[in-house]
């Protein structure tokens, strides 16, 4: 379904500075009032630190203040707080503390869930410039990135309207973007289960609410790991530091290397992934010797392993996993970068975030486009043109575009 522009602004409506932030916050309040059951209560809620990001006056161009060191004894207390003063974003610590509301040095850390963040922007997909916009931080002018001299336009951007520089870059993820993140999440689940032995029911996969996926591991075997141990897990998953010795190639002899497969074989973990790429098995010592020679010996083969690691390693945010004091977006809450919710994925392969995470109401809001834009949500296509004065959109579509910085919203006078 395509929604057409309406040039007649309904009576009784006015637009004043800051109304976009007020309108979005109002829609968020109604969500938390009517959809509180969607908020997923974390284990040991009374031991968690909570935080939230306030709405800025010029939402979304200027973010609000971050508030941390909050504690709630129940989800009821949390929901009451969200309805009373709806934040732009809601966060909950992966860590457990004795005193979660105290300053960091006084919290008394008791452990932390293992978490992972997969963000679509980290894949550098060729489709991104065709659905990314540069938005001026000063006057709000926006246009497609590819219309402003390609993917590097942001580096030399000068606003045609006010001559300001340093724009925000906002993207409307397409199916290819979401699929890339989904595939990476599927690979991560496979590695955590196959290589680390984590039971599948201990791994929860969530859509982040914007352009990626979060994985939460609830397993007591990992809760006490410090930052270095979690960094080692990240290193393994990304293939960082993969050495020739791991596949049976070591420095030795007149040729500069020798081949001796590990006693444990090469049929699991990174050994299996490398063996598959090289098309070898446990009986292929001679073939591997030939491959190493072709690559220029030990040093050349190490360079080849680094290339394989880049291809086969996972793309995850290392800081998210290694930070044992991080506050992480809370499941069931709204993401201010999109107005979509962070939701758990039942079947990630068939998961459609533009339907299953698009949970805001249908009530219409007067919307003014800041750029020519087309977006598809809940199976409906919405087209806005900047030359049109206004358009009536359902709240879920209006808020999505406002959160992206591509529309302004009006509220009742």
Radius of gyration from the CA trace?
A: 25 Å
The strand order across the widest sheet is 4-3-5-16
Low-confidence stretches: 1-17
What is the strand tally? Answer: 23
Shape: globular
Give the oligomer, counting copies of the same chain as homo and different chains as hetero. single chain
Helicity range = 25-40%
Q: Which structural class fits the helix and strand makeup?
A: alpha+beta
What is the distance, rounded to the nearest whole angstrom, between the alpha carbons of the first and last residues? 30 Å
| Helix count, DSSP H or I runs of 4 or more residues | 11
Main beta sheet strand tally, sense and closure: 4 strands, antiparallel
Overall pLDDT level:
90
Report strand %.
15-25%
Q: What is the fold's blueprint, element by element?
A:
Blueprint: E1 2-3, E2 13-14, H1 19-34, E3 50-53, E4 66-70, H2 75-84, E5 89-93, E6 95-97, E7 109-112, E8 114-119, E9 132-135, E10 142-144, E11 168-171, H3 175-194, E12 203-207, E13 212-217, H4 220-223, H5 227-238, E14 249-250, E15 258-259, H6 269-278, H7 285-294, H8 298-312, H9 318-322, E16 327-329, E17 343-344, H10 353-356, E18 364-369, E19 373-377, E20 380-384, E21 391-394, H11 395-403, E22 407-409, E23 411-412
Parallel strand pairs: 1-20
Antiparallel strand pairs: 2-23, 3-4, 3-5, 5-16, 6-7, 8-13, 9-10, 9-11, 12-13, 12-17, 14-15, 18-21, 18-22, 19-20
Helix pairs in contact: 1-2, 1-11
């Amino acid at each position: 379904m395509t929604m057409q522009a309406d040039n007649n602004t309904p009576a009784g409506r006015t637009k004043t500075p800051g109304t976009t932030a007020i309108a979005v916050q109002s829609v968020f309040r109604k969500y938390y009032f009517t959809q509180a059951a969607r908020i997923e209560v974390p284990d040991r809620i009374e031991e968690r630190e909570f935080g939230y990001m306030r709405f800025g006056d010029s939402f979304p161009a200027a973010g609000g203040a971050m508030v941390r060191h909050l504690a709630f004894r129940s989800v009821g207390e949390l929901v009451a707080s969200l309805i009373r003063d709806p934040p732009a974003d809601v966060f909950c610590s992966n860590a457990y503390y004795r005193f979660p509301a105290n300053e960091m040095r006084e919290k008394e850390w008791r452990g932390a869930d293992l978490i992972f963040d997969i963000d679509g922007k980290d894949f550098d997909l060729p489709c991104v410039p065709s659905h990314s916009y540069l938005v001026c931080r000063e006057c709000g002018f926006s246009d497609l990135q590819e219309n402003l001299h390609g993917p590097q336009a942001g580096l030399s951007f000068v606003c045609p309207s006010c001559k300001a520089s340093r724009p925000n870059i906002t993207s409307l993820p397409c199916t290819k973007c979401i699929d890339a993140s989904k595939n990476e999440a599927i690979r991560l689940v496979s590695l955590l289960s196959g290589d680390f032995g984590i039971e599948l029911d201990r791994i929860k996969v969530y859509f982040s609410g914007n352009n990626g996926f979060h994985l939460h591991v609830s397993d007591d075997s990992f809760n006490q790991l410090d930052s270095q141990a979690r960094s080692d897990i990240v290193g393994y998953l990304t293939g960082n530091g993969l050495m020739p010795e791991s596949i049976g190639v070591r420095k030795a002899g007149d040729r500069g290397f020798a081949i001796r497969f590990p006693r444990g074989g090469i049929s699991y973990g990174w050994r299996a992934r490398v063996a598959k790429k090289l098309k070898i098995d446990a009986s292929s010592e001679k073939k591997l010797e030939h491959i190493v020679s072709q690559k220029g010996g030990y040093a050349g083969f190490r360079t080849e392993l680094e290339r394989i690691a880049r291809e086969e390693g996972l793309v995850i945010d290392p800081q998210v996993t290694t930070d044992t004091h991080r506050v992480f977006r809370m499941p069931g809450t709204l993401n201010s970068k999109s107005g979509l919710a962070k939701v758990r994925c039942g079947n990630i392969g068939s998961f459609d975030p533009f339907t299953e995470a698009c949970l805001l109401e249908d009530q219409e809001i007067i919307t003014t486009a800041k750029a020519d834009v087309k977006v598809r949500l809940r199976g409906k296509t919405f087209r806005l043109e900047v030359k049109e004065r206004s358009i009536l959109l359902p709240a879920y579509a209006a808020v999505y575009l406002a959160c992206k910085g591509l529309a302004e919203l009006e509220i009742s006078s």
